[in-house]
Write a structure and sequence with these properties.
alpha/beta, Rossmann fold, 6-stranded mixed β-sheet, 4-stranded antiparallel β-sheet, 17 strands, about 35% helix, about 20% strand
């Protein structure tokens, strides 16, 4: 049996159907949100009426934690304004529209990508150059969090990494995009791992893959054996949330990240397999992060689709067979940590790992009952917290007490709500408490700095 983490965890129905990757035809129009990542929104670098080509940077990173944005289609910038997001609010964006000639040229260029570096030149890139290249390509974590990758690769002064952890767990139900990438593109992932190892100056890497992906494990082990560096592929027990950073680090190294600490505090840097592939393609082909593989489930043609960033969710759903009449809600991401959307007439972003169409009978919540003090949520929590208590403290706005109970350690995996026999919305209240306490902590730090 594969290795795993030491606290809590659950095993929801997997509902995974292995599928290869299908390319979606480039749309004639994209809307690129300037905030597609954790951190500060990017700043528009184009104006209405400008002509751009596929791969051009249209917005630059703004601040320490931010990421550039690139257009996946050629055409004319028709709008630099605010657009509707999937979650129903307005945000700064750039809209690009292609004509027929642009569209045809882009499809040819997309299918015939030429290397911009030789393998020898790739092997000659040092850590500083790799980090700069990753920043220029606008690469963010593709596991769902969308944290700017170049920031994660910049190890803080006073700390030293000794291992790169590569996340191929993909523990969320339904999602199979990473599985497909590992099966179909293992050599590209391994090339990215080598670059990432150089970027953080480590001599070994460990790839963790859940055991329900046997073909991916075989493909990645074969690629690791030929890569020329110390990369180990480790099968993991199928247990959610195996892909959480702290859970994965413990499963693969036995090291426990302290409360409030970063993974690098125990010598580890964690990157997703799809992120590693994006780094390789940026280095070899000069290809910025302007497309990603998205799992679509619950439609007539479920599968994994290579989708340009900025394409409308409605357009992707149409390609995947449309929306069933008895749809209850649509979720971006996985069913455990993903979020329900307000509208399909909004663009996909770099962080859109999945689009799940959930039927009405599965989407409706059960009636909330009083807590029966069964302790199931405590047993399930992978962070060793007491969700029933933290939820109650947050509900009654007892934020000092919630902070004492380490509400900010919650990784929002939803295991507590999943196992609760009383159907209590534990995670909803914990999220509220976590966000409020985190803001209070920021305000305290700001006051100290201002003194």
């Amino acid at each position: 049996m594969g290795t795993t983490f030491n606290k809590g965890g659950i095993h929801p129905a997997e509902n995974k159907t292995a599928a290869d990757i299908e390319d979606v035809e480039l749309p004639n129009e994209v809307t690129l949100l300037l905030s597609q990542h954790i951190g500060a929104p990017a700043k528009a670098a184009v104006s209405k009426g400008d002509r751009v080509r596929r791969g051009d940077m249209v917005a630059t990173a703004c601040g320490v934690v931010s990421a550039c944005v690139h257009t996946p289609i050629s055409g004319v910038v028709t709008k630099v304004d605010r657009s509707l997001t999937p979650y129903g609010y307005m945000a700064d964006s750039i809209t690009v529209k292609a004509d027929e000639a642009d569209h045809c040229d882009d499809e040819v260029r997309r299918k015939n990508v030429e290397p911009c570096r030789s393998i020898d030149e790739l092997d000659g890139l040092d850590g500083e150059r790799i980090r700069a290249m990753v920043a220029d390509a606008g690469i963010v974590g593709l596991g769902g969090a969308a944290f700017p990758t170049h920031v994660k690769l910049a190890v803080p002064k006073g700390l030293k990494a000794d291992v790169l952890i590569v996340n191929g767990a993909e523990c969320e139900p339904y999602l199979t995009a990473d599985d497909a990438i590992m099966r179909l593109c293992p050599d590209e992932i391994m090339g990215g791992i080598k670059l990432l190892m150089r970027a953080v100056d480590v001599k070994r890497a460990i790839v963790g893959i859940e055991e329900n992906k046997p073909d991916a494990i075989v493909a990645m082990k074969r690629a690791a054996a030929c890569c020329g560096v110390d990369v180990t592929v480790v099968p993991l027990k199928v247990k959610y949330p195996q892909g959480g950073e702290k859970q994965l680090i413990f499963a693969l190294t036995g090291r426990e990240v302290p409360s409030g600490g970063l993974p690098v505090s125990v010598g580890a840097v964690v990157q997703n397999v799809a992120t590693a592939r994006a780094v390789y393609r940026a280095a070899l082909y000069g290809e910025p992060l302007m497309e990603r593989v998205v799992t679509v489930a619950g439609t007539a043609r479920p599968g994994n689709y290579r989708v340009p960033v900025g394409m409308g969710i409605n357009e992707l759903l149409k390609v995947a067979g449309g929306i069933p009449a008895d749809t209850g809600k649509i979720v971006i991401g996985g069913p455990m940590m993903g979020k329900a959307i307000e509208t399909i007439y909004a663009p996909l972003t770099k962080g859109s790992s999945g689009i799940l169409v959930i039927l009405e009978r599965e989407a409706s919540r059960q009636a909330v009952m009083p807590c029966i003090r069964c302790g199931a949520c405590v047993e399930a929590c992978p962070m060793g917290l007491e969700p029933y208590l933290i939820s109650t403290l947050s509900r009654f706005r007892m934020f000092d007490e919630a902070e004492e109970q380490k509400v900010t350690n919650c990784i929002e995996c939803g295991s507590c709500s999943y196992v609760c026999p009383a159907a209590r919305p534990l995670l909803d209240y914990v999220r509220y408490g976590k966000a409020t306490v985190a803001e209070r902590i920021r305000q305290r730090k700001k006051k100290c700095e201002d003194k």
